[in-house]
Amino acid sequence: MGASDAESADTTPAADGPFPDRVVSGAVHYFRVHPDLWEDRLARLAAMGLNTIETYVAWNFHSPAPGVYDFSGWRDLPHFLEIAQAQGLDVLLRPGPFICAEWDFGGFPGWLHRTAGMQLRTSDPAYLAAVDEYLDELIPRVLPRLATQGGPVVAVQVENEYGSFGDDTAYLEHVRDGLVRRGVDVPLFTSDGPGPDWLANGTLPGLAATVNFGSRAAKAFGELEVFRPGEPKMCMEFWHGWFDHWGEDHHTRDPQEAAQVLDDMLSAGGSVNFYMAHGGTNFGLWNGANFDGVLQPTVTSYDYDAPVGEGGEITAKFHAFRDVIGRHFELPDVEPPPLLPRLEPRTVEVDRWASFDDSASSWGEPVRRPMPVTMEELGSGRGLVLYRGSVLVPPDGRQLVLDDLADRAHVFVDGTRVAVVDAPEAAAGIPLTPRTDGEPTPVEVLVENRGRINFGPRVGRDRKGVSGIRIAHRFIHGWESTAVELDAEGFTAGISFGSPDEVPTEGPVYAAATVVVDAPADGYLALPEWGRGFLWLNGFLLGRYDAAGPQRTLYAPAPLWREGENELVVLEMGTPGKAIEIRDRADLGKAAEFRAE
Description:
The structure is a single chain. By secondary structure, the protein is of the alpha/beta class. It folds into three domains: about 25-330, TIM Barrel, CATH 3.20.20.80; about 345-355 and about 490-595, Jelly Rolls, CATH 2.60.120.260; about 365-485, Galactose-binding domain-like (Jelly Rolls, Sandwich). About 15% of the residues lie in helices and about 25% in strands. The strands form seven sheets. Strands 1-2-3-4-5-6-7-9 form an eight-stranded parallel β-barrel, surrounded by five helices. A six-stranded antiparallel beta sheet has the order 14-23-15-20-17-18. Strand 10 (about 290) and strand 11 (about 295) form a beta hairpin. Helix 8 (about 255-265) runs parallel beside helix 9. The radius of gyration is 25 Å and the shape is globular. The two termini are about 30 Å apart. Residues about 1-15 have low confidence and may be disordered. GO terms for molecular function: beta-galactosidase activity.
């Protein structure tokens, strides 16, 4: 069903009308794909036989501060929707306000934390006021792209998997009414797990109910039939792949096994949305995290073992899924675009270095208070936060304790790193010894924001930084708190590089290299001798790398390269290497078969 066929579909121009029938959709998030590649990726999905694409809208991608919104450039959602329509694709729009998506804070802006006591995803008035501000900015930009106005958007989702979180029906009604009141007149829908409790708490009367699953289609659709007899059946998230956390294996799934589940759905007359059809990349610091006793940050790649790979590769799943779609629908007589050219593999030696303090001109203004200030209180979204103070260590020595550390902290005493601790270790304390002269000891604590939790009951509970620093039970007062926003525009331009006689052996430290290319092309960058840190290309933060794996390469798409000289900058937090490898294919690590239920 193309966008031009919207009026003939099983829909009515009312927000509570029937859901579009026989949808074959694929998820692709505009915020995870370079805008110069939107057309390429959507053309590939159209060639696979999709008639629809689905995208979330990430609130925090558009709003860095209260009342500040950006829908230009990479954030030009209306342009993305127009490209979809030009490819003959309808759109399922999922604006949240919560999206999960393995995205930082589930799409919520970090500045929501500045309102004390705000209760997210509830009918709390402070939270609803923020949601209304968001919808006031978003919906007027979407209205001209609705199918009722000749656009591609055939349906809009209310919240996201709310039945897995809570039961505040008044909140769901507020989001629904807010969409309708602002002019959304295409069908609205919800998506939840295929169980009676999830469906009971995540849906609203009059709105289409869809379910999310990866296997056992008959059972899932059966649950939906019990809940909504006779209504169309759609899997809004067909989990044919999965995401990765640092330190895990790379999740993959057998293409033929996943294709059989797809065939089961379509044979039952159901609709499907592949999650993901093209996963893309968590560029910058946008990755989210899970929590299972400890923080589990998601890796930079969001390849998701999708039919269209992170770099646009046509995979075995593409062909397996296309074959199944062709048994149920007429396939387009088009081929996917050719793969973009790849850079010639080579190894580039780094030749310039800078200390962490050499980037101080790119940091935020220090805030001096008795207690440390969290990243959110500093107005910072992502990156690092640096605390500087001094500690008079008792003669017998004591433990330095970091309160409410959610991530990882590097602790420096008298300029020397004495510990790197993750959240569970921070509560145990870091041993300190007194100075021989009896003077206070300079202490610095550098905290990494490794990604905010995006799913489950702890969403919104992992403020970044620390709330207090103690010697045993006694608080230390008088801290200077500084935000280091690594993804800020122009951050690397403020780093003063040099060529030291001795190569640094410990982070945090910056390194730089120059790469000359004949023409922009896709590439994959690897740092096999390095520990853990961040990598920029021509001032753009590609993302995080970590020797823990599984991911071994960072995707560097062609639009970020330029003919001639290109600058690579590394911030290594652990043990620096000496070279960066340019490769022509991705290495996402050791694969492990995984099947989501």
